[in-house]
Every structure is written in C-alpha cells, then in structure tokens.
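User: Is it possible to get a 3D structure for a protein together with its bound compound? The compound here is 4'-phosphopantetheine. I've pasted both below.
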Amino acid sequence: MEKLRSLVAIYPGSFDPITNGHLDLIERGARLCDRLVVAVLRNEAKQPLFSVEERMEMLREVICDYPNAEVDSFDGLLVDYAQRRGATVLIRGIRAISDYEYELQMALMNRRLCPGVETVFLMAGEAYSFLSSRVVKEVIRLGGDISGLVPSPVEVRLKNRVLRGF
Ligand code: PNS
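Assistant: Yes, that's possible. Here is the predicted structure of the complex:
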C-alpha cells in the first residue's frame, strides 16, 4: 500500500563545526525518517568560530552520502521552525548521562510548546562519546591532533581558521 505521509525529522544544533559525532547521528537519523533536515541555529548572542553560512557549507559537503538529508538554518523557536517544515520529530544526540539533564529540559519544554512534535534521542556511537565541537576547537588551538574527530574537509577549514587565521 502507498504511504500517504512522509516522516520529516529535524536535527537541530550549532554545528560549530560539524564533528564525526554529529555525522554519526546524521547517518542514524537519516535511516529512521523519510527526510532529515539538519538545521543550524542562527544565534546572534553566541560568538561562533564559523559563520552560519560556513557551517552550512561544511554540512552540505559532508552529508552528500545521505540523499534524504538536507541542510537549512533557523532562528526563533525550534518547534515553530519544525511546524513550518512539516516535521513531527526532533532528533537529539545523547553521548553520556551528563547530556541527559539539559536535553530532557529542552525536550519537555518543546513538548509543552508543541505537543505534536516529538523529541527522539539517539545514542551516538561510543567512539564519539567524548567528542564535541568545543573540545575539538580547544584541542586544535592548543596544538593537539584532531584527525579522525572531524570530517577531513572540516579539519582543513579548522586548521586554516585557528592556526592560520583565514
Ligand atoms: O548544538 P546545540 O548548541 O546544543 O543546539 C542547541 C539548540 C539549537 C537545539 C537549541 O539551542 C535550540 O533549539 N534553540 C532554539 C530556541 C528554542 O527553541 N528554545 C526553546 C527550547 S528550550
């Protein structure tokens, strides 16, 4: 029988920049839904290393293996954006129990704001349980090796931005 409704999921985040942990989540998320929208938050209050456009460019470069995934940006409330995109699922990654408290608070607030949109937590691969954009930026700033932690085009851009200033 033909399916009438397709499942659209949003994977929101800062992605400053995308790490292999995020990519792992994109791969898992893309398998679960018909359309996965990787959505970068436009947040004027934060001082990111990469502009929203740069982050979206990097995401597009590395999600090309997943034909049902696309990249977008949003501002304002996530649930409003989800509704505009016809999404019924929000995907968030949980690396360790320490993530849970913040994620639970956000999920319950989003549910209160919009009961029709469900948050789904996915467990990142255990190889990435220590990985975050913040830690990657700190390690590269201090001269450490980040190979294998971010996709190679992102590693090049990180080295250019942090070590060479462009
Ligand atoms: O990668 P991050 O920084 O952990 O992502 C956080 C994000 C973008 C998911 C979160 O800050 C967000 O959804 N912001 C949009 C504002 C919003 O909807 N707030 C209400 C939910 S608490």
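The chain has a mean pLDDT of 96. The beta strands are 8-13, 35-41, 69-74, 89-94, 118-123.
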